Every structure is written in structure tokens, then in C-alpha cells.
Amino acid sequence: METQEPQKPISVLLVEDDVSYGKVVQHQLKRFTARQFLLTWKESVEEALAELKKGSKFDVILTDYNFPTSNGLEFCLQLNEMENQIPIAIITATRDIKLAIEAMKLGVEDFLLKEDIGESHLARTITNLVDRVAMRKQMHSVEKRMMIAENRAQAIRELVVTVCHEFNNPLAAIKISSDLIQRQGLSPEDKTLMKQLDESLQRIESEIKRLRDVTFEKIDFHGEELTRKATEGADS
Predict the structure, then answer these.
(1) Which CATH entry fits the domain spanning 143-230: 3.30.720, 1.10.287, 3.30.200, 1.10.3470?
(2) Percent of the chain predicted with pLDDT > 70
(3) What is the CATH number that goes with domain 10-119?
(4) pTM of the model
């Protein structure tokens, strides 16, 4: 049996000026056994911003809404100015739908009411939030790779059309010249040579047709190259 690798601990930046509630959060995350949390607790927005400016890495920012000199929305605005990519969850004692809407407009992932957070609810919410954001990033990465792959495929299609066009023009001229030559009085040896030339021209035309009919049915999103497959004559 394969042993499952332990999940990486979730690094949380808690921004909470209420010491008693901060200890509640510490207690809840510590008692949660399904996932490990690494908690960094700052009691003000200023301290939290200073921590982030140092380059500290976090999986999620968990912040109160009300602060003596600021609020959660202003904190989010400052984070956006820093081009913050860390998902944010706001905890508040205020049941305010408009506030929640404004928070979501600023990119807040979750809006939690303190009174609704039970013993394991907070930890599960954070875990679900982190997993949801990770899944979204993964989907975005796949979509980006799909777009790049499609752009590559389109570029190859255009190149194939150009190559076929470049072959067809001189090939047509050669065939016309060949027809004119064959109308002349040729020796048996020359006729044999012209027949061989015609057969070669037919093979070239056939290969150009195969090239023109190439499609791109399979795209390897995990590799650097597209897998190409001809729809006609691929096995011939």
C-alpha cells in the first residue's frame, strides 16, 4: 500500500486586536486535528502590513473588520495596492449584507460572523477556502496552457497553409512544362524518364495533400510540444 504524504500546514496571518478572540482562534486552530495550522498573529493593520512587506508568505489572511484606526475594507484596499495574491477572509460581529458585498467586490474570499463560528467551523472554513483557491488557480493554469496550446496549433496551421502554397505554385509550373515536353518526339529512354518524373510529381502532390489535411486532435498540456496527427493516410 502507498503511504499518503501528509498535507502541508496552512500558514495563517491573523489580524485581530481583540486579544481574547485572538486566543479563541488560536485554540480552535490548535485543536483541529484534520489539518495543521501555522498561525502568525498581529494586533493591528499596520503590524500586518509590515509583516507582509517583509516578504512573509501566507496561505490565507484572516482579519477582523473593526480596528481603532482602520477597518477591514481599508485593509483590503491597502493589500490590493500591494498587489496581494493571498486569499482574505474577514471576521466580524456585524451581520451586514452590504458590508459583505463591498468586501467581495474587493476580492475577499469569505465573510464570517463571529457568532456563527463553532469549535471546528473556523478551521474547516479556512481549509475549504485554501483548497478552493488552489483549485481555481489550477483551473486557471490549465486554461492558460490550453490557450497557449491552441495559439501554437493555429500558428502551425498557418505555417502548413503557407508551406503548401509555396509548394503548389512551382509544382504547377513543373507539371505544365512536363506536359509540353511529353508532346514532343521523345526517345523511349526520355519517355521513361518523363514517366518517372510524373510519378514523382504525383507523390509530391499526395504528400502535400496529407500535409494540408493535418489536424491537431491531441494537445499535451503537460509537455512543451503539440502532438500532431494526420486525419487521412496517417497509417499509410
Answers:
(1) 1.10.287
(2) 87
(3) 3.40.50.2300
(4) 0.59
